[in-house]
Amino acid sequence: MKTIFPELQYCPLRYRAIHQSSCTAIQLEEGGVTFRQLDAWVDECCRIYRDKGMRAGRRLLFVTHKPLDTVVVALACLRSQWVFCPVNPAFPEAQMSGYRDRIGAAQVADSAGIDFHRRIALMRPLPESRLQPIKIHAEAVYDLIATSGTTGIPKAVAHSYKNHYFSALGSMHTLPLTYGDTWLLSLPLFHVGGLAIVMRCLLAGTTMVLFERRLSLDDMLTRQRLTHLSLVNTQLFRLLQSGLSLYDLGVRYILLGGGVASPRLVEAVKAEGVTVLTTYGLTEMASQVCTGEPLFTGSGVTSGAVLPWREVRLTEEGEIQVRGDTLAKGYFQQGEVTPFAGTRGWFNTGDKGRWHGDQLQVFGRMDNMLISGGENIHPEEIEQALLTFPEIVQAVVVAMTDPEYGQRPVAYVQTVDGTLNEPFTKERLAGKIAKFKVPVHIRLFPEQVAESGIKINRRFFQALLE
């Protein structure tokens, strides 16, 4: 079945409610929600918040642990021209308050009081024949996504629906998504990566799978056929350790984020018949910028080729610059959007990269770089070298102050069995990277580290070292 995408100026959910009314939009633990049901829930949500005083252009700060409610509110905002402002419920109160002031939220809400599920059960929705397309303002500010800073008040990145639309279409150029596919909504919706999955599934008319209870990933795979997964290296390792055959369970594509990938894990999954794609993206570009089948080089792994509707170039210093239809409108503060500073539309990412043919290899943040005895060291190069060892599942490298060299690298690793032979690991590293890059210490991850999100929290390990 050939996928026909809704036009940019129309609400994608209403399009699917008209053309695929009885198809499953969201798969929950207790059953499925059709596009028609989801459309009715969104309509009711619009009515509820209009009654609470929401008007076009106002900002709705939404704080909840419930992804289903977040999906409904996000689509209600798109339909009603409110600005969707999801935020991490784990923000400390002072940070939450500062962010609320920064964006000037007209209303702060959570799941309490919405109750659209029960209300809709008591209503008789309009028949599909009476549904009409809904026009939206594709270039207006649609959402504010908080950047993932762990200290201070996060910046608010202002996207339009147009940014998300072309992000989704460009993604599907390399990562096919069509009727009958299912994508696990495993990323939080206060991050652009989670919202990107919602948009891709809506535009393609496919099912997003949403389990609100905390089930293990292998439990989810055995309960529900999942064709598309967004994972990090550690999750991929655990899936293979479980002994499950991913291909037999229905998995066809794995999008591997987080900036690192283990070649042995990728090869093991590919041997099953599953396509593994690495990716590079950022909030300011509405998620993916590059995606492709990874190439493993002497200094790391590539993140794929540039997707349609994006452009990438490197400065003389190797900094990655981006622009295109997916580039957000700017940073939002005190009622105004400040466009990203840059020449001819180019945005400075602060990331360092290098080309391998048409594929981009990312070496991490420019400001993560260590200078040790006058030599530049990129932590990501050491991390990728560590990941080539079969016993290492995850690695992070931070800087230790040194009176002689200025800075020296220190590595933290997570291993298969929780043990580490530090001298032997250093000896093998010396055969893969320059000796001055071998960490002065290699330590195990602390047991209390909770794995969340899609990236390593480098600041945590830096603070742990200090």
Explain what the structure shows.
By secondary structure, the chain is an alpha/beta fold. The protein has a domain at 369-465: ANL, C-terminal domain (GMP Synthetase, Chain A, domain 3, 2-Layer Sandwich). 29% of the residues lie in helices and 29% in strands. It has 13 helices and 26 strands. The protein has helices at residues 12-19, 35-51, 67-80, 93-103, 116-121, 161-174, 192-204, 217-223, 233-241, 263-272, 379-386, 422-429, 458-465, and strands at residues 24-28, 31-34, 59-62, 83-86, 107-109, 141-146, 156-160, 182-184, 207-209, 228-231, 253-256, 275-282, 287-292, 296-297, 300-306, 310-314, 319-324, 330-333, 336-338, 347-356, 359-365, 370-372, 375-377, 392-402, 406-415, 441-444. The strands form 6 sheets. Strands 10, 11, 12, 13, 14, 15, 16, 17, 20 and 21 form a 10-stranded mixed β-sheet that branches. A 4-stranded mixed β-sheet has the order 2-1-9-8. The protein starts with 11 loop residues before the first helix and ends with a helix. The mean pLDDT is 89.
